[in-house]
Amino acid sequence: MSRFTLSLAERGENTSLVNLIKILRVLDAVYVLEHFTVAPKTSPILLAKVGEKTRLRASKSTYISPNDEVIW
User: What is the pTM of this model?
Assistant: First the structure.
């Protein structure tokens, strides 16, 4: 890496990703790139398939407690 490339990076000018990684390696700061990792996401189709299996049908409760009066 040339001194010119390093001075460009220090000034905030355009540098390539390869040069940025080289600079981070020299500074032992590669851990900074961990913030750019993408967390795996579950696909919406897979969520829908799982949701179909756990879906319950809505129904009225048929339990009547002994204290409730039935009014006709």
Answer: 0.49
